[in-house]
Design brief:
heterodimer; A: 289 residues; MetI-like fold; B: 262 residues; alpha/beta; Rossmann fold; 2 domains; four-stranded antiparallel beta sheet; 10 helices; 40% helix
C-alpha cells in the first residue's frame, strides 16, 4: 500500500487478471449469481446502434439499396403496402391469413398435443405407443417433409396448416409430458393420503403443477410455428406474410422482404409478451416453492 | 381399537447387483386412541418405510396392519400425512390448501371454508386465509400443512419429520403447538423425527429403531408431554433430571447404531 495509490489492491496481476477476479457485490444483490444485473439500457443501446449502422451504411452509399435499403425506404414501403396492398391483397389480409394459419395450427396442436402429452406422462402404455413416431419426426426439418405433405394433402390450406401443426405439435407434447413430472412426490402422496382418487390427483395436483412447463412449451411451440410459416407458404400461396417475403425476393423488392421480416418478428414478439403476461398471472408461484 | 401393526416385514427386492434389503423386520406396534407414538432412529432404520406402510403407500412383504379392525390396503382419508416440506400446493392460497382434503371429498365451499378456518385459528393462522402459501415463512407453511391434515379429520395423523426443516427456535414453538393441538383434538399421532429431544418431549410412547435390518429395539413410555400440557413450561420439562437422563440413554443407543454402521 502506497500513498500514491488511493485504491490499493493486495493482489498483483495484469489487466486480464484484474478483470477475471471476483469482486464483492453491492448491497441488495447476492454474491455470485451468474449473469446478474439489469440489461435494459444496454439492450436499448444495442438496438439504437443497429439502426444507426444500418442508416449509416445506406446513407453513405456503401452498400447498394438492392442489398440493404435504407430504414426510411422500409417505412415508406410499409406505408405504400399498407395503403395499396401487395399483389392485389391488402396488407392486413396477408397478416390475417398468416396469423390464422399459425394460430389455427397452434390451437389444434395444443388441443391434441396437451392431452396426449399428459397421457404419455401418466401412462407407460401411451408413452410406449406414441414416443417412437414423435421422436422419429421431431428432429426432421419441416422443409424436408413439405414435399410429402403436398403429395398427400395437395397444395391447398390443409397441407400448410398441417406443416405448421407438426412443427408446433412435438414441443407441446414433450412439454406436457415432462410437466407431469414436476409435481413433488410429497404433494402427490399428500393428496392420496386425504383420500384422493387417481383422477383427482391428476386433476388437482399433477395438472396444475405441470402448468409452468406447459406454458413454456406453448411459447416454444408458437415460436416454431412462426419459423415454419415461410416454408408452409412457399408453395402455391397467393396470400400471407411468408408468401409476401418470398415473392418480393423474386422481384428483388428488398424493402418488402425486410418489412415482411419485421412484421413477422413484431407479431411473434407481441404474442410472446402476451404469453409471458399469462404466465405471470397463471403461475405466479413458478420457481418459488 | 386404534392401529395395530402385526409382525410386519418389508424386503426391498435386489437391484443393481445388490442383494435384497430387509427394510423392516418383524415390527409389532400398537397406536392406541389419542396416543402420540414417536419413532426415532439412525438413518436407514426404516422409520419412513414404516410411515409409508401405515399411510398405505407400501404393502408389507409379510404381516399385516389393522386400523379399527380393518386391514390397511391403500391410502385413505383416515390417515392424513404431514410431510417435511414441499407438500403444499402453491397454486392454492392458504385457506384452499387447508380445505383441500374437503374439496377432494366433494364438500361445498361454505362448509369447507368454515372447517378450514377453525383449524387455521387453532394453528394461529387467522388473517392469512388469502395469502399465497409461497409468501409464508417455513414455520407458517408447516402449520398450514398440519392444519390441512387436521381438516381431513383423520383417525391417525402421520407426521414424517414435520419440523426438520425449521430453525431451532421455530421448531420448539412448533412442538408446543403440536402438543396443544393434539390435546385439543385427541387424535392418534405417529410421528417420525431425528431429534432425540423432540421425540422425548412430544411423545407418549417412544420406539427406538435400529438399521440393518430395520427393527424396533427399545420402547419407552414418556411422561413429558403430559407434564407440559398440565402447565409446566417447556424449558423446565426439558431441563428436568429425568428428561436429561433419558435423553442421554437414548442418545447412547443411537450412537451405538451409528458407530456400528459399516
Amino acid at each position: 500500500m502506497t500513498e500514491q495509490d488511493p485504491m490499493p489492491t493486495n493482489r498483483p496481476g495484469g489487466l486480464f487478471a484484474r478483470l477475471a477476479r471476483a469482486r464483492p457485490t453491492k448491497p441488495g444483490e447476492i454474491y455470485g449469481i451468474p449473469g446478474q444485473g439489469n440489461t435494459l439500457w444496454l439492450s436499448v443501446a444495442s438496438i439504437a446502434l443497429f439502426f444507426f449502422i444500418w442508416w449509416l451504411v445506406t446513407f453513405m452509399g456503401w452498400v447498394k439499396p438492392l442489398f440493404i435499403p435504407s430504414p426510411m425506404a422500409i417505412v415508406t414501403k410499409f406505408a405504400s403496402v399498407w395503403n395499396t396492398g401487395f399483389t392485389g391483397t391488402p396488407f392486413l389480409g396477408h397478416v390475417w391469413i398468416s396469423t390464422a394459419r399459425v394460430f389455427g395450427a397452434f390451437l389444434l396442436a395444443c388441443a391434441i398435443g396437451l392431452p396426449l402429452g399428459l397421457a404419455m406422462g401418466m401412462s407407460p402404455i401411451m408413452r410406449g405407443i406414441f414416443d417412437p413416431p414423435i421422436e422419429f419426426y421431431r428432429p426432421i426439418p419441416p422443409l424436408a417433409y413439405l414435399p410429402l405433405m403436398i403429395i398427400w394433402f395437395g397444395i391447398g390450406e390443409p397441407s400448410k396448416v398441417l406443416l405448421i401443426f407438426l412443427s408446433v405439435f412435438a414441443p407441446v407434447v414433450l412439454g406436457a409430458r415432462s410437466g407431469v413430472k414436476s409435481a413433488g412426490i410429497e404433494q402427490i402422496h399428500a393428496a392420496y393420503s386425504f383420500g384422493a382418487t387417481r383422477w383427482q390427483v391428476m386433476r388437482f395436483v399433477i395438472m396444475p403443477s405441470a402448468m409452468p412447463e406447459i406454458l413454456t412449451a406453448m411459447r416454444i411451440g408458437i415460436g416454431f410455428g412462426w419459423t415454419t410459416l415461410v416454408a408452409a407458404e412457399m408453395v402455391a400461396s397467393t396470400k400471407g406474410l411468408g408468401y409476401m417475403v418470398l415473392s418480393a425476393s423474386q422481384f428483388l423488392q428488398t424493402p418488402v422482404v425486410i418489412m415482411g421480416i419485421f412484421v413477422i418478428a413484431v407479431i411473434a414478439f407481441a404474442f410472446d409478451l402476451l404469453m409471458r403476461f399469462v404466465e405471470h398471472h397463471v403461475v405466479p408461484w413458478k420457481g418459488r416453492m | 381399537m386404534g392401529l395395530s401393526i402385526e409382525d410386519v416385514t418389508v424386503v426391498f427386492p435386489a437391484a443393481d447387483r445388490r442383494p435384497p434389503v430387509a427394510a423392516l423386520s418383524r415390527i409389532n406396534l400398537k397406536v392406541e386412541d389419542a396416543e402420540f407414538v414417536v419413532a426415532l432412529g439412525a438413518s436407514g432404520c426404516g422409520k419412513s418405510t414404516l410411515l409409508n406402510l401405515i399411510a398405505g403407500f407400501l404393502s408389507p412383504t409379510s404381516g399385516k396392519l389393522v386400523l379399527d379392525g380393518r386391514q390397511v390396503s391403500g391410502p385413505g382419508a383416515d390417515r392424513a400425512v404431514v410431510f417435511q416440506k414441499h407438500a403444499l400446493l402453491p397454486w392454492l392460497n392458504v385457506v384452499d390448501n387447508v380445505a383441500f382434503s374437503l374439496q377432494i371429498q366433494g364438500i361445498g365451499k361454505a362448509q369447507r371454508y368454515a372447517t378450514a378456518n377453525r383449524f387455521l385459528g387453532m394453528l394461529g393462522l387467522e388473517g392469512f386465509q388469502t395469502a399465497p402459501v409461497y409468501t409464508l415463512s417455513g414455520g407458517m407453511q408447516q402449520r398450514v400443512g398440519i392444519a390441512r391434515a387436521l381438516t381431513c379429520d383423520p383417525r391417525l395423523l402421520l407426521m414424517d419429520e414435520p419440523l426438520a426443516a425449521l430453525d431451532a427456535l421455530t421448531r420448539e414453538k412448533a412442538q408446543e403447538l403440536i402438543l396443544n393441538v393434539w390435546n385439543d383434538t385427541h387424535k392418534s399421532v405417529f410421528f417420525i423425527t431425528h431429534s432425540v429431544e423432540e421425540a422425548l418431549f412430544v411423545g407418549t410412547q417412544l420406539v427406538v429403531m435400529s438399521p440393518r435390518p430395520g427393527r424396533i429395539t427399545h420402547r419407552f413410555d414418556l411422561p413429558f408431554s403430559r407434564q407440559f400440557l398440565s402447565g409446566m413450561p417447556a424449558r423446565q420439562v426439558k431441563a428436568s433430571p429425568e428428561f436429561i437422563r433419558l435423553r442421554e440413554d437414548v442418545l447412547k443407543i443411537i450412537f451405538a447404531d451409528e458407530g456400528a454402521a459399516p
